[in-house]
Specification:
Length: about 750
């Protein structure tokens, strides 16, 4: 062949390889036209907490140019000690200057980024070599407000004075029920707020002019470069235009309309209330910071800018410092990878940390769970996807360790192919969940947990299938297929039941036609169990090529209606009709979110390992129908699973929103939202959708994917920490593996 032709063909081959490498691998193994989300840095907040040792009558918080944070209380000055994310510090009496401890301080402000104090005698500071000590002579002095050239307004019970260098520049009477004073340098004007009015106070003459009269006013701050002020009230806030002296309509559709503090920090309006703090988003909704994930205490007394751009929230219980960082999804993933390995691996299982002392992760204890196998399967699949993305050695070791734990679920009990729920060292039954379900193993050191359910089984099959497909390490692949085969042979041999050590089917491990078709078509378990068992048999056949699995699947679909069952539209799923048996009625009281998790884990094997294209098309239709029903929840994992079927239409923005909005703090804090006035509450419904729009994950209690994301209230008072292994890492690494999320990119504008 001529050299020219050889070179030309080589060039074409190289170009083809480059094009192929640049394209996105679709969920079905074909090239997808879907554009991957480009993983650029985004803003993520965490809270660092500094509680008082006991409740205090707190007044103000300020941070100076040196990074010193001081809190003024009726008992004097306090300052922060220690403190980091997940590791609270505390507020301690500030003894830095002995003389300040001997004074009864009434106000604390910043001037030229230095701390300035007010007591009954003077305006004073330790800055500027301590030269500022201006006597004010104002009885009952309680407010100080700096203006220019070391001029200070001091307000007391009856009198407001302007002072500079111990000289009285002007004075006027104090309005009734005075609350606060702020100075606007551009207009050289003080603005004075009482409970019933807004005044301007001329810097030169000290004359008060009434600009607005109303009731229930509480606080204000300047916005729009000082042209307007945002005014808080006992029932919402409004905007007052200082150029026209006109007020906007009051906005009371807020997370909590009882406003206690307003602060404009770098263009963002932060609002404190009797129940937490919030700021308005670009779309008109609010970022809400309430509950112990975010705040020490409930009622926000004061808000201030922190020394490094943080936002400080003061309550009678202490101080919370909201810190902002920018990182990529990949960096968040690496943080969560450390969280799992550091605190959530129990015998190789992906476990929760429990028995904690109010958020103290150092006090926690690894807990067993009914679903140790399921949560570990989800983590294991995530690690397999991680390995599939970049061949990560650590991910491979994580797979090996957790697969060993999964394998032992099968070998620790005497029933061939039967997976235990969990295992634990002997002698601790009273400390374990459901102590009556634990059985002795042949080994004197170990017990195992019986009564395994269908959600465990589908989780196992999902993980084994992912491992066998994605991880190219022969020993891991072989073990995954052996376990898959053992489980499914047990199910087939026992007529589609999980049969326990006592020879009886477990309560939930049932896929037999007599059981499944015993439910009316609208009862979800009929559709669910049909979908799951076909997915399980397809997965087993795909990797073992044993004809029995294929034959049994077609028998169930053709002779027992399982294909028809799994194709029932989600809109037809509901409560059992009157006259149905008690079991069907119980199972169909409301939407079951654990079922959603089982469906979607099963969809991997149902769609990806479909026996033929005709079935794959039908499965895809069923998956898409289910996803449409789930879309309001904006669950990142369900959206990413849906990309198996429709990589160009899977709510990419909502999937990324979920990954970004999930909090870094996975502690099970109690969170309450039912009081909010900014959300639309729906009537009670079968779907258990409480609101028109789902709230962000960081405003709700920590939930796994099997929980209702619309539930507004709940939590465990900080007594447990969940693992990110199944909650966050699975959807992230699955998205990476399917080409839906790019690797990290820096210095690119955030897309969302």
């Amino acid at each position: 062949m001529p050299k020219f032709h050889t070179n030309f063909l080589m060039l074409c081959l190289v170009i083809a390889l480059i094009i192929n490498a640049c394209q996105t691998k679709g969920a079905d193994g074909n090239v997808s036209k879907a554009a991957a989300y480009q993983d650029v840095p985004f803003e993520q907040e965490v809270s660092v907490k500094y509680p008082f040792e006991g409740p205090k009558e707190a007044l103000k918080v300020r941070a100076d140019r040196n990074g010193v944070i001081q809190v003024l209380t009726e008992e004097g000055l306090f300052r922060t000690y220690g403190g980091a994310f997940l590791y609270p510090g505390r507020l301690v009496k500030d003894q830095t200057y002995r003389a300040l401890g001997d004074k009864t301080l009434r106000d604390l402000v910043l001037y030229q980024e230095q701390l300035v104090y007010l007591d009954s005698v003077a305006v004073l500071s330790n800055a500027w070599a301590g030269k500022l000590f201006d006597l004010h002579g104002v009885a009952g002095a309680k407010i100080v407000c700096p203006s220019e050239r070391f001029t200070f307004l001091v307000a007391g019970d009856d009198l407001i004075r302007g002072i500079r260098s111990n000289d009285i520049l002007w004075e006027t009477s104090t309005p009734k029920e005075l609350l606060m004073v702020k100075y606007h340098p551009a207009s050289k004007t003080h603005y004075v707020l009482s409970k019933t009015a807004i005044f301007s106070l001329d810097e030169e003459e000290g004359a008060l002019t009434n600009l607005y009269s109303g009731n229930g006013l509480t606080c204000f701050d300047f916005i729009d470069e000082g042209q307007k002020i945002a005014v808080g009230t006992e029932d919402g806030y409004f905007i007052f235009d200082l150029s026209t002296n006109k007020a906007s309509t009051k906005n009371s559709q807020l997370p909590c309309p009882a406003i206690t503090s307003i602060k404009n920090i770098d263009g963002s309006l932060w609002i404190g209330s009797e129940k937490g703090a919030f700021r308005e988003r670009k779309d008109g909704s609010y970022d809400y910071y309430f509950g112990e994930r975010w705040l020490v205490g409930q009622e926000v007394i004061d808000i201030a800018k922190g020394p490094h751009g943080e936002v400080l929230f003061l309550t009678d219980q202490g101080l919370s410092k909201l810190e902002f960082d920018t990182h990529t999804l990949y960096e968040k993933a690496m943080y969560f990878e450390d969280q799992v390995r550091n605190r959530h691996i129990r015998f190789g299982f992906n476990a929760s940390l429990g028995n904690m002392e109010k958020g103290n992760v150092a006090s926690g204890m690894l807990k067993d769970s009914d679903n140790d196998g399921l949560w570990t399967a989800m983590y294991l699949a995530g690690q397999a996807f991680r390995y599939g993305v970049n061949g990560d050695d650590e991910a491979l070791e994580n797979c090996r360790e957790s697969l060993d734990a999964m394998e032992r679920l099968y070998t620790i009990n005497p029933v061939e192919g039967f997976p235990s729920r969990s295992f634990n060292r002997s002698g601790y039954e009273k400390h374990l969940a459901d102590p009556e379900r634990w059985q002795r193993s042949d080994h004197p050191e170990w017990d195992w947990k019986a009564t395994t359910s269908s959600d465990e089984a589908i989780g196992h099959v999902f993980a084994f299938g992912v491992l066998a497909e994605v991880v190219d390490e022969p020993a891991i692949r072989k073990k995954a297929i052996q376990l898959l085969d053992a489980l499914m042979q047990h199910v087939v041999d026992h007529d589609f039941y999980l049969v326990d050590y006592d020879g009886n089917p477990t309560l939930w491990g049932k896929w037999n036609p007599d059981y499944v078709n015993g439910f009316p078509p609208m009862v979800g378990d009929r559709k669910l169990n049909s979908s799951n068992i076909i997915a399980m048999l397809q997965t087993a056949y795909h990797f073992t090529q044993k004809e029995i699995y294929k034959d049994k699947a077609f028998e169930l679909m053709q002779d027992h209606g399982y294909l028809q069952n799994l194709m029932v539209p989600m809109e037809n799923i509901g409560k059992a009709e009157d006259g149905s048996d008690e079991w069907a009625a119980m199972l169909s009281q409301s939407w079951n979110h654990s079922d959603d998790e089982m469906y979607f884990l099963g969809y991997w094997g149902l769609y990806r390992y479909a026996f033929n294209d005709s079935l794959k098309t039908q499965y895809g239709s069923a998956i898409k129908d289910h996803w449409e029903a789930e879309r309001p929840e904006k669950d990142g994992l369900w959206n990413i699973f849906s990309a198996l079927v429709s990589p160009n239409d899977y709510d990419q923005e909502e999937a990324i929103w979920y990954l970004k909005q999930y909090p870094m703090d996975l502690i099970d804090w109690t969170m309450v939202n039912s009081h909010r006035k900014d959300i639309v509450i729906l009537d009670k419904n079968f779907r258990e959708q409480a609101t028109a729009k789902v709230l962000p994950p960081d405003e709700l209690r920590i939930r796994r994917h099997n929980a209702n994301r619309f539930a507004l209230d709940g939590g465990g008072e900080g007594k447990a920490e969940y693992s990110a292994g199944d909650i966050w890492l699975l959807p992230y690494w699955m998205g990476r593996y399917l080409g839906l999320i790019s690797g990290p990119e820096a210095n690119v504008k955030n897309q969302y």
